[in-house]
Specification:
This protein is mainly alpha-helical and 516 residues long. It has helices at residues 19-25, 38-59, 64-79, 83-88, 100-110, 113-123, 134-145, 155-178, 187-197, 214-231, 236-253, 265-276, 284-287, 291-295, 307-326, 332-337, 355-364, 369-381, 385-390, 439-452, 462-473, 478-485, 503-510; strands at residues 2-5, 11-16, 29-35, 392-396, 399-403, 419-421.
């Protein structure tokens, strides 16, 4: 940050906007006139830069539309208004009104403990000449007086931090008034008022639910299943079959360290795909083969288990997820929608989105560029959502591709290790802005349900179905489609990645997808 004195006798603040915020400001730097009085200009500059740094600090935890909202408020309420006049009229709050529910909903993004520490360390010293070093001790004393002992990783602590951050904003604006000799309230008064303005109820301070991993959930369900099935006289053979399947197969297929709360319907559909590719274990060559090795092998269709067996296994999986829902670990929608029919595959259980529906979805995501770009990726590549986060962007023979051939990435099946040419509509630079979470799936599925179709068969996974459908209608060979989607086909060998078709041929197939 620079405070500049122009040749016209005007002080200005100038600083470069962090690249990740430039698109929200629609400019690369802040250049703001602050008036002719140096002391006043310094105080204004301090307030402007402090609020900018708060947005920058919060941006790593916010959704894109929340960032845009904060930037817009910063521009209209800080850059475009006289800060001292706003402070005089009591318009000191910058971000959200002090309503408990709204505050609590946004606190993880807007006010982590690290943000509070940042303000304390950076600005206590800067304001020491105005004796504001007492703010830190005042805040600590406030915690002690109210007997607040909170885990610093909890939402309750973040909520408290949010109130303290509001106090800091008000204090910085009070500093501006010092230049005019008017200090209505001392920092201690501000903090106490703000802290007590919303009661921190036991509900508010309820610690965040601990993460339950897939492994922990499955082990808990196994113990539950054995207990209830033993009591209801289920046959020993049935108990053995279910237990072996859950322990040997499902435990291997799932990412055991992942939070089960992040499970999506797309994850369950992928599991169904994997089950259909498993071999009959009564065939001699598969009897003693570890499941991890089976998942790495190409199983001839004649050797795969029957769809009736798959349906039975999916029923067991549904019971597992129903149990997890009863424990509050996952959404009930996951358990309700786990099903399979004897004559369909996972894709057939979803309906494709047509181009008009995809374009509408794109428009609805205009304020969320990374997820908007994700829709384009899924529609033009046929990748699973999980694969988007695992791929690397590389160039082969002058063609940009999503590379899923690395040996250290865990994919659904051996044939999932492949390369897929990038469609021209995709911005590959935006991929790194995606965070691996359930959020993208939730956002897209919610938009589809509310604005595009109430048919439960149209979901994010439908974009993979759309890809296959388009290529089929364009007359692309079935083997090429299978290779692009990570399915087995007759032209594949048993190498880690040994597709029959050159990248140029795959690119020709991708380019048949018309997208504005």
């Amino acid at each position: 940050m620079k405070l500049i004195f122009s040749k016209h006798g005007i002080y200005k603040i100038r600083f470069r906007i962090n690249p990740k915020l430039q698109s929200y400001f629609n400019k690369k730097e802040i250049n703001k006139s602050l008036g002719r009085y140096k002391a006043e200009a310094k105080l204004k500059a301090l307030i402007i830069f402090a609020k900018y740094k708060q947005i920058l600090k919060a941006s790593s935890m916010l959704e894109k539309h929340h960032i845009q909202e904060l930037v817009s408020k910063f521009i209209t309420e800080t850059l475009e208004q006289d800060l001292i006049d706003r402070a005089k009229t009591g318009q000191g709050i910058v971000f959200t009104p002090a309503y408990k529910d709204e505050l609590y909903e946004n606190t993880p993004a807007l006010a982590s403990a690290s943000m509070a520490n940042f303000f304390i360390s950076e600005y206590t010293e800067a304001l020491s000449n105005a004796d504001y070093s007492l703010v830190k001790s005042c805040a600590d004393e406030l915690l002690e007086q109210n007997s607040i002992a909170i885990d610093k990783a909890s939402d309750g602590y973040k909520l408290l931090s949010y109130y303290l951050m509001h106090a800091w904003i008000l204090i910085l604006e009070e500093v501006a008034q010092r230049g005019r000799g008017n200090i209505p309230e001392q920092p201690a008064t501000i903090i106490n008022k703000l802290f007590n303005s919303v009661s921190l109820s036991s509900h508010t301070l309820e610690p965040k639910k601990p993460i339950v991993t897939n492994k922990e959930a499955l082990e808990a369900y196994l113990a539950h299943y054995k207990r209830i099935r033993t009591n209801d006289r289920t046959s020993a053979g049935q108990i053995r079959d279910v237990t072996n399947f859950l322990t040997d197969v499902l435990m291997e297929v799932l990412d055991t360290s992942r939070d089960i709360a992040d499970t999506t319907l797309e994850d369950v559909l992928d599991i169904a795909d994997i089950l259909k590719a498993l071999p009959k274990r009564n065939i001699q060559k598969y009897r003693d083969m570890p499941i991890s090795q089976i998942l790495e092998s190409e199983i001839p269709e004649a050797d795969t288990i029957s769809l009736s067996t798959v349906a039975k296994q999916v029923k067991w999986i549904k019971s597992f997820y129903t149990y997890c829902n009863s424990k509050g670990w996952i959404s009930g929608a996951i358990a309700q929608q786990v099903s399979i029919t004897s004559n369909t595959n996972a894709l057939d259980e979803r309906l494709p989105l047509d181009l008009d529906e995809v374009l509408k979805l794109i428009d609805l995501l205009a304020d969320n560029k990374p997820i908007q770009n994700l829709v384009k990726i899924l529609y033009t590549s046929g990748m699973r959502l999980s694969e988007v986060y695992k791929c690397e962007i590389k160039e082969i023979d002058g063609i940009r591709v999503y590379d899923l051939t690395a040996r250290d990435i865990k994919l659904k099946t051996k044939s999932s290790h492949r390369v897929i040419p990038v469609h021209g509509c995709v911005d590959t630079d935006l991929i790194k802005e995606l965070s691996y979470s359930q959020q993208a799936s939730k956002i897209i599925n919610k938009l589809i349900r509310e604005h595009i179709s109430d048919d439960s068969r149209k979901v994010l996974y439908s974009l993979r179905h759309s890809f296959a459908t388009i290529l089929k209608y364009k007359g692309i060979q079935q083997e090429v489609i299978a290779e692009l989607m990570g399915h087995t086909h007759g032209g594949m060998t048993f190498g880690r990645y040994a597709g029959r078709y050159p990248v140029a041929t795959l690119k020709e197939a991708i380019d048949t997808i018309e997208f504005p």
